Amino acid sequence: MKTVPIIAVALWLGAMAFFAFCVAPAAFATLGRATAGQFVGAIFPRYYLAGTALGALALAGCAGRSMRGGGRRGEWLPLGLVLLMLAANVYGWLGVLPAAHAAREAMHQAGTAGAVGSPEAMRFARLHGLASLLNGAAMLIGVVFLVVEGVRRR
Questions:
Q1: What's the CA gap between 72 and 54, in Å, rounded?
Q2: What distance in Å separates the CA atoms of residue 110 and residue 108, rounded to the nearest whole number?
Q3: If I label 116, which of 89, 102, 108, 152 is the partner at 20 to 30 A Cα–Cα?
Q4: Residue 87 has what pLDDT?
């Protein structure tokens, strides 16, 4: 049970890195912007669902470990890190993703999908930036979590 949070976060971090550094760049390099956007947009709900499931598993493992530890010093830090990762993931999924889909749809309806300075494109770009920031933050927190767990195991 002690390794469940480590395994869950490592899998989650690996999936995030694979998507961010392999899948999305390959899609945009080979499919063209519009088709790649549709492809990546179709993956995102599953991406966030998988992250939420792995985050919940890690959270349960950390919570169980913290309860068994009787609140010992250092037991709550990993739990807090997983909570932060999970919060970033859930906000990206339930807050940013629907807004980005709506902004992309508004661009297409307004006929400004290729117009860089249009209000719709600017809104989509802002939401895309926020999603990237949340994903990057979750990845960084995941790395910190694994480092903390490594130090705790020594």
A1: 25
A2: 5
A3: 89
A4: 97
Looking up tokens 């049970």 gives: 1
3-36 tens-digit pLDDT:
899 999 999 999 999 999 999 999 999 999 889 9
Buried-exposed string 101-122: b where 16+ CB fall within 10 A, e elsewhere? eebbebbeeeebbeeeebebbe
Tokens of 117: 């300075």
Please, what is the average pLDDT of the chain? Answer: 90
Residues in Cβ contact with 13 at an 8 Å cutoff, skipping those fewer than 6 apart = 139, 142, 143, 146
> What sections of 69-118 are H helices per DSSP?
76-91, 97-110
Residue with tokens 């869950």: 8
Per-domain boundaries in the chain: 4-153
Residue 100: what pLDDT?
Answer: 93
Q: How distant is the alpha carbon of residue 123 from its chain centre?
A: 20
Confidence of residue 71 (pLDDT cuts 50, 70, 90): low
Place of tokens 């949340």: 134
Distance from the Cα of residue 55 to its chain's centroid:
10
The encoded tokens of residue 43 equal: 């993956």
Helix, strand, coil in percent for the chain, rounding step 5: 85, 0, 15
